[in-house]
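Hi all, long-time lurker, first post. I run a small reading group and we've been trying to get comfortable going from sequence to structure in the token notation. Rather than ask abstract questions, I figured I'd post a concrete chain and ask someone more experienced to write out its structure so we can walk through it together at our next meeting. Sequence below, copied exactly:
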Amino acid sequence: MSQREFERLAIYNEYYRRFDSRFQIEFTLPAPRDVCFAIALNRADRDFSERDRAVLELLRPHVAAGHRTMRMQLEFKALEQCADPARGVVLVSATGRVRHLTSSALCLLEKYFGKGIDGHLPEEISRWLGHRERLLASEGCLRERVGPLVTERGSHRLEVQARCEGNGQMLLLRESNAPPSPSRLTELGLTPRQAQVLYWIAQGKTNPEIGTILGASHHTIHQHVNAILEKLGVENRASAMLRALEVLGLPKTAQVARS
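-- Answer (accepted) --
Happy to help. Here is the structure in token form:
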């Protein structure tokens, strides 16, 4: 587009003319999807030269790095102000050193990995990050296929997700209740297999459905159910379900499944 054509545009007359801006040069910055960050310089008297363009091209990576740092710091401060003990953020440098972390992140890391942070990530997280980077570098691996790191402690679990930010990474930590495990039902004096059967009874499954899930016949599941009722000292599966829900810590709202 020529200068004359540009000055005939409505946007020029409605916007640029007000600032006496006839010449413009701009460059974009890395940004999330569907967002555009750009810096534009304007002049009124003379056009930008190739030397001007070369200088801006040299400055561009430094401006982009500063912009990324600013975005990370703003997001970090916003998350810190949330004061949610179940969520934390860790900023990691390209060399794997911890640059910043929220107070909640420090508590979560100490809770699940058992030691303080001296500038380095716990070994388990470092190994996971290395594995993640190798997967992302492999041909044909999609980012969404790289799952989070999940570790459990008692009835709680910690999920760690990583996001590339500039030359480093931002780790997002989130604690939640761990899904109940069938093995907890062995506390009722059941065998591991009986615990699995009772677990699915508590989920409202019928005997045929449990047989399909566990790869066992309907007759075998029926025998397990009878043994479970006898060990628990109850007369029906509804009562067995209530006992299971108590141990699993689940709400007693499940419907009794009839075999």
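A couple of things your group might point at:
Strands lie at 23-29, 37-43, 87-92, 98-101, 149-153, 156-165, 168-177.
Confidence is low (pLDDT under 50) at residues 254-259.
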